[in-house]
Design goal:
Blueprint: E1 4-9, H1 10-24, E2 27-28, H2 33-37, H3 41-50, E3 55-58, H4 61-71, E4 77-80, H5 89-94, E5 98-101, H6 104-108, E6 114-117, H7 129-133, E7 141-145, H8 157-170, E8 178-179, H9 183-186, E9 196-197, E10 220-232, E11 237-238, E12 244-245, E13 250-255, E14 272-275, E15 278-281, E16 291-294, E17 306-310, H10 316-322, H11 327-332, E18 339-343
Parallel strand pairs: 1-18, 2-9, 3-4, 4-5, 5-6, 6-7, 7-8
Antiparallel strand pairs: 1-10, 10-13, 10-17, 11-12, 13-16, 14-15
Bound molecules: pyridoxal-5'-phosphate.
Length: 346
């Protein structure tokens, strides 16, 4: 019997890719860092390549190496967002990776084809406009990029400010294609699309603006079996530290999923699951291997029944909010212990 099951719908991934690419109207270069947001970087990348993706973004050198090996003979540009970190040059070359230059030190340490990352206000990685200007005669700049800090909030004035700053700097590199938008930016309008967009979260089912979006299909479904059903009398506590007290008599299902399966410890209180047509609350602290949920009044609550923790009925953005975290963190912490099933319909 499968007790914890992760279903990863690669057809939904393909649909999301088409939506994101068509909305932007330009090349879509998937961001498949952190094992493809937990979905499986190699499975995701191979399917996206079949759907037409020819450029990818990863965070780390090792992610780029693994992806290059998986792609084999398939041609693709793989950008490494960390850039040419000290000592990485030989390996970047060996795997034919394209580093993203984030500083003048990195610019000096790399003499091949590269992307240039301009900081337009996030103050994370990237060159200032003045620093970028000193590189404008570099012949091997294959992409000029920046990253939006507030793309999840369309009304935030930071978006327009970063757009304006990016336009000014990219003019220094008229030959190079430009890229600004991640998932959120794609839905801010075509002004933000430039020549390439870099979707991540919305490929994998998260809404572009931190809430479910009808245009984006569910990719990840996480289900756990009920291991035991017990009656908990009013006044009894449930789980570690006695952190939850039954306010009346409860029927409680103990599920085979805990923080080692990607249910955040912060999910209590507030976390929910989907069973018998409704959301049910988590009761008691999250254990490593189990959670308790309130199934009072459910007629089919019995061992072996599967309960949805993420999926079409409980979108990742909503599950994340209830658990006090984000869709990004939920997905990137998905279980490696659960049984994984990839859905491929065609
Ligand atoms: C992670 C990342 C992306 C993808 O962002 P999403 O919000 O997941 O779509 C794009 N660009 C850069 C630089 C990133 O770090």
């Amino acid at each position: 019997m499968t007790v914890t099951r992760l279903t990863l719908d690669l057809d939904a991934l393909a649909r999301n890719y088409a939506v994101l690419r068509d909305t932007a109207g330009v090349e879509a270069a998937p961001a498949i860092k952190a094992d493809g947001y937990g979905v499986g970087a190699l499975e995701a990348a191979l399917r996206l390549w079949d759907e037409g993706a020819r450029s990818f973004h990863v965070a780390r050198l090792t992610e780029g190496e693994t992806l290059r090996a998986a792609l084999g003979e398939r041609t693709a540009t793989i950008y490494v967002l960390d850039g040419p970190t000290p000592g990485s040059q030989d390996r970047l070359r060996a795997a034919r990776l394209t580093p993203v230059i984030n500083s003048l030190e990195q610019a000096a340490a790399w003499d091949g084809a590269a992307a240039i990352h301009i900081d337009t206000g996030m103050n994370r990685l990237g060159l200032t406009a003045a620093e970028a200007a000193t590189l404008s005669d570099r012949p091997d700049v294959v992409l000029v990029m920046s990253h939006l800090a507030c793309a999840g909030k369309p009304a935030d004035p930071m978006n327009a400010l970063q757009l304006e700053r990016f336009r000014a700097v990219r003019a220094l590199f008229p030959q190079a294609p430009a890229s600004l938008a991640s998932s959120g930016g794609i839905f801010l309008g075509r002004d933000y699309a430039f020549d390439q967009v870099r979707p991540g979260i919305s490929l994998f089912g998260g809404g572009p603006h931190d809430r479910p979006d009808a245009r984006i299909s569910t990719v990840v479904t996480l289900e756990a079996a009920i291991l035991q059903v017990r009656e908990v009398p009013a006044g009894e506590t449930i789980g570690y530290a006695g952190a939850f007290t039954a306010e009346h008599d409860l029927t409680v299902g103990i599920l085979a999923a805990g923080y080692a399966d990607g249910v955040p410890w912060s999910a209590h209180p507030g976390g929910v699951v989907w069973f018998e047509g409704a959301l049910r609350r988590m009761v008691g602290r999250i254990s490593m291997d189990m959670i308790a949920v309130d199934l009072t009044g459910c007629e089919t609550a019995r061992p072996g029944e599967m309960v949805e923790l993420l999926g079409a009925n409980l979108p990742v953005d909503n599950a994340a909010r209830a658990a006090g975290t984000t869709a990004y963190e939920l997905l990137t912490r998905l279980s490696t212990r659960a049984e994984r099933r990839y859905v491929v319909g065609r």
